Amino acid sequence: MAKVRVHVLRSHEAAGSRYQDYEVSYELPATILDLLRLIQQEQDPSLGFRSACGMGKCGSCAVAVNGEPVLSCQELVTQEEIWLEPLPNFPVIKDLIVDRDRYCNNLMPVLQQPPLFPLVPPRPADDPTWPECLECLVCDGVCPVMAQVPERFLGPALLAGTAGFQKSMLPTAWESAYFCLLCGECMTACPAGVKPNDEALDVRRQVTRKGRLPQSLQRLAQRITTAHNISGEENQARLLWSQQADLAPAASNPDTLYFVGCVSSLYPSMYGIPQGFATLMATCDQCFGLLGGEEWCCGYPLILNGMLEEAKELAIHNLQRMKQRGVKRLVMTCPSCYDTWHRRYPALTGEEIGIEVLHATQWLAELVDHGRIRFKELPWKVTYHDPCDLGRRNETFETPRQLLTSIPGVVLVEMKRNRDRALCCGGGGNLESFSPEVMTAIAQERIQEALDTGAEALITACPQCQRTLRAGARSLGVRLPVLDVVQALWRALPEQ
Amino acid sequence: MNGVSIRTTDVLVIGSGGAGLWAAVRAAELGARTLLVDKGLVGRNGNTVMASGMTVMGPFCIPGDSPELLFEDSLKGGQFLNNRKMLRLLIQESAERLAELERWGVQFDRDEQGNYFRVQSEGHRYPRAATHSDRVGLVIVKALRRRALQLGVQWLEDTMVTRLLTRDGQVVGATAINNRAAELVVLSARAVILATGGISQLFPMSASQAPNSGDGLAVALRAGVPVVDMEMIQFFPTCLVYPASVRGFALGLKGKLLNNRGERFMERYSPEWLESATRDVTARAIDAEVRAGRGTEHGGVYKDARQTPWRIFLSYLDQYHFCLKRGLDLKRTPAEVAPALHYCMGGVQTDEWGQTAVAGLYAAGEVAGGLHGANRMGGNSLADILVFGARAGQAAAMWAGRTSLADPAPWQVQEERDRLDALLGRRGVVRAIELKRTIQGVMRECAGVVRNGPALQKGLTQLESLEESLSQVEVTRRDMRYNRELTDYLEVENLLLVGRAILTSALVREESRGAHYREDYPQRNDTCWLKHVQLCLKDGHLEIGLLPVGDEDG
Ligand SMILES: Cc1cc2nc3c(=O)[nH]c(=O)nc-3n(C[C@H](O)[C@H](O)[C@H](O)COP(=O)(O)OP(=O)(O)OC[C@H]3O[C@@H](n4cnc5c(N)ncnc54)[C@H](O)[C@@H]3O)c2cc1C
Ligand code: FES
Questions:
Q1: Tell me, what's the pLDDT at A139?
Q2: N or C: which end of chain A has fewer CB atoms below 10 A?
Q3: Which CATH number fits domain B235-342: 3.30.470.10, 1.10.10.60, 3.30.70.2190, 3.90.700.10?
């Protein structure tokens, strides 16, 4: 027998909500649902929660365990103290019972719209491992956008649950597809392995094909297709950061190339990232080349717009330049460029790219491990924000953390949501262009989480996250420095 | 104070598993205003979501197989107690229902050549169950729920039906507790379909954690509707007995059954079929091994799937992962299994349209009785709920079209109000949940895999005395909003009545047949017992009738 303390957030009509504490003895292994049933049967029949099958099929038992939405019947008890709350982003009816009507209300018009069939998303019939959505709504519960604009966003459950439907004609559906951050939190949380994100992308492709891409995104796309970068400036401006700091690339044709990416090379407030990276490399005599004005946007924002053909053109250009220069290794400080090169280029072009692709943190970790870079003592309490494209999408969670803690004196504290359950900064999925307000609201939420840790700085590993989070901090009027890992390491370099 | 509200509809469907959903869909397709109520979430609260295989015949049955062979197998499995007319319809129409599901987008498993993938269930000579990975029930429910939404079927969730309302021998609606709105609802309807499923809560070890408590059977009995075959309770032979958290989990995955000496004991009990014997045979074999001291540490036998081919695992993938997560790797370790309550063959007596003895009242799915005889064959229940759910929906819609809406008798509503009012906030010394456990204990002892006269009699006496403690049950809160104690109390009332019905029928049937095994009458006796035991509630007593089998064939 084991013992666990359970704090359940209960609703009391007049008095609002508060946690009620229970101590439960249970036989191992037990699920959260087992605990709830034990409490209801042995201690407190007034406790409200939903369950039925107990085997992960009916999808009725979703709750938040220590802040993470899960199916309570599938979640094993592993801690001695547990906080249980109703599934977030839904109106509470009683205790852990939430009102799920929104899902059906949104589903109905999709179903009633011609053509009427099929009612369930198609699947390959010879693949028994194909995931099946339970409509448990855990994904809606973790979705950062759902938390902000539930009335304008259909939510991941509906996007996934209607995969293959002609829902692009529904105004809410296309709006929804662009609200999606593509942050992947729903995919991580899904107990059935469904990928709502992919569906959002698919709807975007349909909408774009119908020529109904929202205007702000059309402008973004136009800048990229004409100027080959996101800001629309002269592409030569990509080298300004290096000229400003006198950090010209070392050799003419080195094996390694630094693909700087649009955000860091075109927004002066982000110059610190490439400058920091270049300085770090200089201290250990690593050299790399730059494409400068020949670097084109990697195509990521176009892919997010659902414009695969246009993205492919950029990919082909960039790949050709690499081939011409005989580049063997490509490094980038932007995780979205990294993800695009490493995972999407092969899909776009239909062939392996034949170049090793690294995120800067990965290369730096190698150098630090080999003692090539040393840091001075820097007493500093920091927290780390996982960029979706580096963390959830490429499962690089520990490398940046190890880099930070390799600085003597640095204390790393974690935010409530971290690693694969990290909250997106708010800037994913082109939301900055589509809805800056929602982006800022999400960024503010993240800043708040960072402040709650008591950290003196918020460190991330993505220029877009940094921009977004800074905007969040600014709009909240708080002074929390937001820096990149490379900038943090730069700071910790001993003075020459 | 808890309020009362009224909802009016043409067709009222009580229970939203596969049977209820299909009934609602069909009724709505035929133009009837349809209201679906469930004590939990629509489609999610019952057993349908857990099912993994559906028996279907049709143009795609595998070479050598035929509808006649399925008929024979099912009749043999049901030990000739089945309603043959319904069985024929089941076989004929399941293919149409499957085709309909496919039109709605459901894609059943196929192999690389595009042929339907089939799983062989117990008692079937051929593989006949269509699958959708491990989730055929879930997918069917999903498609049906969406179809219902599409058709504009209305639904009320978290609403437990407590009583049927009748007037002049005709059903006019039902009363229910709407847990969400914390009120009593009077559901006024031209036709009512019972689709409340089975009796999962009646035994301590059950293959289902769903809160089915025989409510439909109980409200039907109280409305004067006869039930049949109640002694026929199926125990799924191989349910996990350990660890506690998964106790009862029905392990469908194929494997060898071994006792604690490593003996493949089914060679003794069913040399021809081995582990593929019908569920009653295997359940009894396991029970006998355990009783003879050849069981495992936790009172079961071993199910060893280490040599089961991976393709078979793929049809039980969810089960495999479920166990794996709890530390049981079925590819490497045999599981400890024993029989647990699975299915109630008995139920409300109906004709092939689901029509009961009361005009306007229909029943379909597990709540209905007679079709599966003394033992339901694997996969036949899903076929049943689809075929007879649709039939009941159709018949109810037609009836509703011919009938005018009659107001429920105010005294009946008032009586139910008063009854609930007296319960709410009542002080007492007994907790309903404890009574539930006691009832379950009685049922396990007296009406399990092996039965005998004295034990059944003792069980009846025990249940009757438990009925007296009902007045001592405490319901602390007066508020109706998700009042667990109130729900438990109402379920206990129903379980007691259904338990009595089971024990009574089992006592009457002095022979052994299918799932009903009497050690004092171990033989099947076709001379006397090709009969259904029928029960009717009159003034609190269960009146017994015997109906010869075959009459229904006309
Ligand atoms: C673990 C398991 C596996 C199974 N596998 C298979 C299989 O592979 N193949 C097969 O053919 N069969 C299988 N069965 C059996 C089959 O799933 C069920 O018999 C069948 O689904 C019953 O369907 P139903 O619609 O009659 O009832 P259910 O699906 O049980 O639905 C009944 C509904 O009625 C509601 N209800 C009950 N009482 C009330 C009330 N008072 N008021 C309002 N609503 C109420 C419940 O909440 C529930 O939603 C399995 C059963 C179990 C337990
Ligand atoms: S209780 Fe059914 S999924 Fe958890």
A1: 97
A2: C
A3: 3.90.700.10
